[in-house]
Structure formats: structure tokens, C-alpha cells
Amino acid sequence: MDQKNDSSFAGFILLGFSDRPQLELILFVVLLIFYVFTLLGNTTIIVLSHLNPHLHTPMYFFLSILSFLDLCYTTSIVPQLLVNLGGADKSISYGGCVVQLYISLGLGSTECVLLGVMAFDRYAAVCRPLHYTVIMHPRLCALMASASWVIGFANSLLQTVLIFLLPLCGRNKLDHFLCEVPPLLKLACVDTTRNESELFFVGVLILLIPVTLIMFSYSRIVRAVLRMKSAAGQRKAFETCGSHLTVVSLFYGTAIYAYLQPSSNYSQDQGKFVSLFYTIITPMINPLIYTLRNKDVKEAIKKVLWKDYGSR
What we know:
This protein is mainly alpha-helical and about 300 residues long. It has helices spanning about 20-50, 60-75, 80-85, 95-125, 130-135, 140-165, 180-185, 195-225, 230-260, 270-290, 295-310, and strands at about 10-15, 90-95, 175. The chain has a 3-stranded mixed β-sheet. Helix 4 runs antiparallel to helix 9 (about 230-260), helix 6 (about 140-165) packs antiparallel against helix 8 (about 195-225) and helix 9 runs antiparallel to helix 10. The radius of gyration is 21 Å and the shape is globular. The termini are far apart.
């Protein structure tokens, strides 16, 4: 068979969970419900952050961006997945696969950087409370948010180009439910050791550097909180930081498992379920985590509901 690039055929077949027909129906129903809750939860966070003056702070500015990222991230994946689960057609066009990889990877990479930025915000709030408004002024917040987007999509552009330059020799059956780096590497009909090393290095920059900064920030935060004499102050600090730390653990844990393990150890079945977790489940539970563990957000929801009830 001639070694030809993937542009010479129509597209890819996403095998997904086609070897488990009974599971497909269950997943279709569950993921549809999760997607609806993701849309509602993250939209609520964005609207509250915009409408409530008490939430016009750097923390909620970044939180609203995180919610917007999660909305876009799941929307770049879930509709296509639901179509594949609900019908016999499992195909995705070549261009559609390129776009899906570029957008989903760009949004995911942006979230990696943004979570690191949010950790710095929490560090400034807890460890430098008197200088917090000076440090986290609106211009710096906008600059850090913009940098997150630029770094995230620059990384996505690099990885997408590297992946689709590989010859596939006509192979188009992707053992996954979306176009993602690890399963696409498996399709290549050449030695991918160099590509894996390059992608691993980029993955370390995008994943491990923010994680290191987050761990450093929280080590300083814990020390500062333990020195507080007020029990109420300690509790409030742990509430606001605990939400972010929970989100960080869920997102980075699964992403590092998927992207930073050797390809020889990569299990397609495990990879699918891990991908389901950080592409669908994590964006759905993020608003719940911030709502249930954050008094400001709960108060804002009560005010909106009470205002709506009073108007009636």
C-alpha cells in the first residue's frame, strides 16, 4: 500500500464504544444529561459573575473565563460524540478531525495555564491581602487571561501540525470517540519515537510547569493560613482555595495520565474513559464544586432567585 497522507482520503472512523453496543445507549443518555447540566451550570457562573457587583473581583473574573472554557470545550466534543453514539455513522471528516483536535486541545491547554493563573490569584489574596487589589489590578488580570489563551492555542497549533504531518498509509480507523493526540499517534505507519518525545516535552511545559507553580502557591497559602489567629479567616481561606484545588486535582490528574505516560503503556479502553472524565465530567462538576463550597456564589444565587420570586 502506498504511503499516502491522510488528506488523500475522506476522513476517519471513530470506533469509540462501537464494540459495546449496549453501553452506547447508556452513554448517550448519561452524556446528554451531563451536557445539559454542563451548559446550565457554567452559564449560571458566567451570568452571576457578570450581574452581581460583589462578584466583580479577579477570582470571579477568572472563574467566569474557566466556565466559558468548559462550555466551549465540551461543545467541541459532545455533540459529535452524541451523533456517533446515537447512529450507525461513526465517521468524521478529515477537516473536522483537524478542527476538533485544534480547538479541543487549544481549550484544554488554555485551561491548564488558567488554573495556574488562578492559583497565583489565590496566593495573592491569602498571602498578600493588603496589597491584593494593587497586585491583581484589572490590566494584569486581562493580560494573564490573554496569555493563557495565546499559550494554549500556540501549543495546540504546534501539536496539531506535528500530528497531521505524520503519514497514515491509508489508516483511518481511530480507536477513540474523538480526535486526540495519543490515538492519532497510534495510526502513524512510521516510527513515532521522535514525535512522542517532542509532544512529551510540550506536554511537560503545559501540564507540569503550571502544576509546579500551583503546588508552590498552595504551600505558601497553607503556611499563611496556619499562621492566622482567626478561625473564621482560616475557614474562609480554605473554602475559597479548596474549590480551586479540587478542580485542579481532577483536571490535571486525568490529563497527566492521558498525555504524559509512554505510548507503550497506553491502554485504549482506559484512555477512552479517562478522556470522558476530563472532557465531560470535570466541566460538569466544576460549577457544582465552586457553588457548593463558596458562600459568595451561593449568596449570589439566592439573591437572583429571591429577586425573581419577589418580582412575581
